[in-house]
Design brief:
By secondary structure, the protein is an alpha+beta fold. Helices cover 27% and strands 27% of the residues. The chain has 4 helices and 5 strands; from the N terminus they run H-E-E-H-E-H-E-H-E. The strands form 2 sheets. A 3-stranded antiparallel sheet has the order 1-2-3. The longest helix is centred in the middle third of the chain and has 9 residues.
Length: 85
């Protein structure tokens, strides 16, 4: 699966799943993302995942650091343009 992530054309990428509790999500597979983010469980209400769930569409963020509720490990990792869907 990691090899397939490399074909998407992004510097880094991941596939996530919402946990059974419906409140958090986790990374199932990642490429070029920090260990802190990959190992954690994150609130579905925040960051770009929260936007996707609220808007039910692919979301593009041009400056992730300014996104309310940005995941600290991603924000602090210097990610700028982020796409999720």
């Amino acid at each position: 699966m990691v090899g397939a992530l490399g074909t998407l054309g992004f510097e880094s990428s991941d596939i996530c799943a919402i946990d059974p509790d419906g409140v958090t999500y986790r990374v199932l597979c990642a490429r070029e993302l920090g260990a802190e983010y990959v190992a954690g469980h994150h609130a579905v209400s925040g960051g770009i995942v929260g936007m996707v769930l609220d808007q039910r569409r692919t979301v593009v963020v041009d400056d992730y650091a300014t996104l309310p509720g940005a995941i600290p490990a991603l924000r602090d990792g210097g990610y700028v343009s982020v796409v999720a869907g």
